[in-house]
Design goal:
Elements (H helix, E strand, L loop, with lengths): L14 E3 L8 H9 L4 E3 L3 E2 H5 L19 E6 L3 H11 L6 E6 L4 H5 L10 H14 L4 E6 L7 H13 L4 E5 L13 H10 L4 E4 L5 H11 L3 E4 L8 H10 L9 H19 L3 H5 L1 H8 L8 H5 L5 H15 L21
Parallel strand pairs: 1-2, 1-9, 2-4, 3-4, 4-5, 5-6, 6-7, 7-8, 8-9
Helix pairs in contact: 1-10, 3-5, 5-6, 6-7, 8-9, 10-14
Length: 345
């Protein structure tokens, strides 16, 4: 069924949290929604695990809460039947969308014929889409890359058309190929190609780090909304920035104290779900991202990479705020190296 608007999140939705392996957990999704994300997407959930009775292996299903705000549940796999069965089960939770991942470049996923590996077989892509649409009780979306190796407008148009013809309601395109990984510059021209090829909403993804990038991508591609991934790691305020700047107002970065407060809340919620020390250890990569946006925090990295308990972390950050004194109340920001967080799917 063709939809002229973004189902459940209204016309003009501008910023969506991309699925990020090991990052877009329930606590982070909730925080991003509070900071203005129009919709959030879960980490991808394995259709193999879900249909082989190994749901306990799917960490992404922990803390699923469709009441917290517009949520898209993402699944992956290369078998149409298993993808359909998984769609039938998870769509019962009534997310805004049931999303299919055809973009993940990670070797382990690709070797199992999941993620971007599906793009090598357009017939398989169509069969998976049709079966998931048939079995899902909610609208279905798909996230793809621009191809397996050579990015061409012809190939992107083919993918987009096959996906739309299968009944998918929305398409997200990360404008790099699988072989590119996260290197080079995302080719936004390919997002424009997809937009011209289909009538369903097209979401642009790739190299969006600020409100200015959101505006540029929308103007360049005419996409219906923009998906933000790595720029949101340790920085859920990016969604505040987008909403504030697009409304024509001046944006003020959060202070170090505000950043630390949100970071600690993030970890506390992770511990509530995963316990200690697991919840703290799993957060180390994200903690590094929060630190990169704090002044005089380089020396903290070594300490936080060894912290195992929440109380330890709270003591370290309390001491840090005391050390920087008045700087704790001065707005601050910064960028995180994209190479360090190449986990977006």
């Amino acid at each position: 069924m063709v939809r002229s608007q973004l189902n459940g999140i209204g016309d003009g939705a501008r910023a969506i949290l991309a699925p990020l392996c090991g990052v877009t957990t329930a606590p982070f999704r909730r925080i991003c929604l509070e900071h203005g994300a129009d919709m959030v997407v879960t980490e991808m959930i394995s259709s193999e695990a879900m249909t082989r009775g190994k749901e306990e292996d799917c960490k992404a299903i922990r803390g699923l809460d469709t009441d917290q705000g517009p949520l898209s549940i993402q699944i992956f796999g290369g078998d149409p039947v298993r993808m359909g069965e998984t769609a039938a089960r998870l769509s019962e939770l009534q997310p805004v969308y049931l999303d299919m991942n055809f973009g993940c470049p990670v070797k382990k996923i690709v070797n199992g014929n999941g993620g971007s590996a599906v793009l090598k077989d357009v017939d398989l892509l169509g069969r998976i889409c049709r079966e998931v649409v048939r079995r899902s009780s909610v609208p279905v979306s798909a996230k793809i890359r621009a191809g397996w190796d050579k990015p061409t407008g012809e190939r992107v148009r083919e993918y987009a058309t096959v996906i739309e013809d299968a009944g998918v309601s929305m398409l997200s395109l990360h404008a790099r190929t699988r072989s590119q990984g996260f290197s080079g510059v995302a080719n936004w021209d390919l997002i424009a190609e997809a937009k011209r090829a289909v009538s369903i909403p097209v979401i642009g993804n790739g190299d969006v780090r600020s409100a200015a990038d959101v505006v540029r991508m929308r103007e360049h591609t005419a996409c219906d909304a923009v998906m933000i991934g790595r720029a949101a790691i340790g920085n859920p305020w990016v969604f505040d920035e987008v909403k504030t700047r697009l409304s024509g107002e001046e944006y003020t970065q959060p202070t170090p104290r505000e950043r630390v407060r949100t970071m600690l809340r993030h970890v506390r919620e992770a511990v509530r779900i995963d316990g200690e020390p697991g919840g703290v250890i799993a957060m180390r990569k994200v903690l590094a991202a929060y630190l990169k946006r704090l002044p005089s925090a380089r020396s903290l990295r070594g300490r936080l990479m060894t912290v195992k308990m929440l109380a330890e972390l709270e003591d370290v950050m309390s001491a840090y705020l005391a050390e920087i004194g008045p700087l704790a109340e001065v707005p601050c920001g910064g960028d995180v190296s994209v190479e360090e967080f190449a986990s977006e799917c």
